[in-house]
Amino acid sequence: MRRALSVIVENQHGVLSRVVGLFSGRGYNIDSLTVAPIAGTEFSRINIITSGDEAVFEQITKQLHKLISTYKVFEDCEFVERECVLVKINIDQNLAGLDSLLKGYNGTIAHSNDEYMTICVNDTSDRVDNFLKTIKKYNPKDCARSGVVLMEN
User: Fold this and answer.
1) Which residues contact 29 (CB under 8 A, 6 or more apart)?
2) Is the Cα dihedral 24, 1, 46, 131 positive or negative?
3) Closest to 93 (Cα-Cα) out of 133, 140, 144, 142
4) pLDDT tens-digit profile of 82-102?
């Protein structure tokens, strides 16, 4: 079962390592991880997508609360969620329908040159997954996903 966590921690060196070590030390997988400082504070927000049953998730959140550098853990709340993906496609092909595809997935052309076009899509993880399935017909050269960014609603 997919689970989302948003953890507010002190913005100090080694904190991210301790959080990741908590997961790896117990054999839990991290499906997505993003971290950034919270503007105007001494804290950072770590967004984690993981999977596991209820007992595993409960153990993870209890361990996160025990970390000295943890200020707050958001676990069972409704989140606003977004993920960004960049996809590079060759422009020497039939690009018919690409414009409507971009409109359908909140996409834009982020960059282009003589050989390639880089597309940016910003949407929920499920919709990014669907976009990546659909964009395969344009034979993507490369793809980079940002990881999930969360904020409690």
Assistant:
1) 23, 50, 51
2) positive
3) 140
4) 999 999 999 999 999 999 999
